[in-house]
Write a sequence for this structure.
């Protein structure tokens, strides 16, 4: 596990990322729905190659944060800087092209499409072809399609899924569908990938494989990974920095060792002890 160094936003990042611009910075981020504050004063910095965790009890606001980071929701207040550039007033597609990708709690594949076509959908950020070329199937389009297929196969092979390239995505086993979602997100060439409960529904061997794959993603693509997860064994064994939410507010930030012994975190998960 990397040595974690404090930074001005009251966060910590890996020592190896200190000489690089953070991939993600949020400052006093918040959103209200009507009279309800769902997230308030969310401030966090994520290093360029950090594996970060966002945890908290059910209803703490974790997925809402992911929706804010990807501009599914526009914040009521605060700022989001992605690779040093503000995401304010950007569309979801524009933010994706800026370098952020995500997966979801519930699998959202194109189930009736092939595995490789799902990955090629993710490659749209790097395809520069006009509608006319797509209709006429001109040489430039055919060359682009060939390149897309080769790149998609490389990504699938990275996850030992190349043999399933032409299978229907909905026919894959559950764990493989989860992996395919991650492959499709990687195809957008992100600087940071957000994984929303990636181990949900997985058995212990699939979870162990997932941990290996997350490390491989960071080490091979040199990008950051931020995950929401309820499997504390996974979180504590793979995350370098952890942020804890409760009722939409950050109650703790720190290393796994610091988080697992933090009284506020223990109280949020287990409740306050009643006095005798």
């Amino acid at each position: 596990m990397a040595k974690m160094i404090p930074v001005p936003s009251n966060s910590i990042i890996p020592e190896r990322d200190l000489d690089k611009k953070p991939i993600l910075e949020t400052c006093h981020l918040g959103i209200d729905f009507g009279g309800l504050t769902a997230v308030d004063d969310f401030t966090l910095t994520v290093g360029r190659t950090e594996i970060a965790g966002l945890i908290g009890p059910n209803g703490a606001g974790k997925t809402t944060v992911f929706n804010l980071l990807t501009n599914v929701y526009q914040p009521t207040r605060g700022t989001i800087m992605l690779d040093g550039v503000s995401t304010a007033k950007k569309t979801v597609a524009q933010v994706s092209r800026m370098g952020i990708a995500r997966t979801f709690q519930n699998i959202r594949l194109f189930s009736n499409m092939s595995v490789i076509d799902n990955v090629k959908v993710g490659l749209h950020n790097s395809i520069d072809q006009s509608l006319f070329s797509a209709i006429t199937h001109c040489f430039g389009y055919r060359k682009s399609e060939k390149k897309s297929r080769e790149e998609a196969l490389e990504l699938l092979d990275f996850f030992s899924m190349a043999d399933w390239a032409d299978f229907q995505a909905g026919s894959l086993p559950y764990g493989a569908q989860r992996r395919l979602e991650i492959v499709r997100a990687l195809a957008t060439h992100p600087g940071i990938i957000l994984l929303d409960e990636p181990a949900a529904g997985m058995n212990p061997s699939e979870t162990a494989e997932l941990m290996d794959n997350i490390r491989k993603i960071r080490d091979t693509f040199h990008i950051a990974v931020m995950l929401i997860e309820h499997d504390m064994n996974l979180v504590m064994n793979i995350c370098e920095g952890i942020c804890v939410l409760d009722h939409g507010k950050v109650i703790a930030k720190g290393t796994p060792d610091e988080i697992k012994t933090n009284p506020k975190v223990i109280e949020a998960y287990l409740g306050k002890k009643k006095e005798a």
About this structure: The chain is about 35% helix and 25% strand.
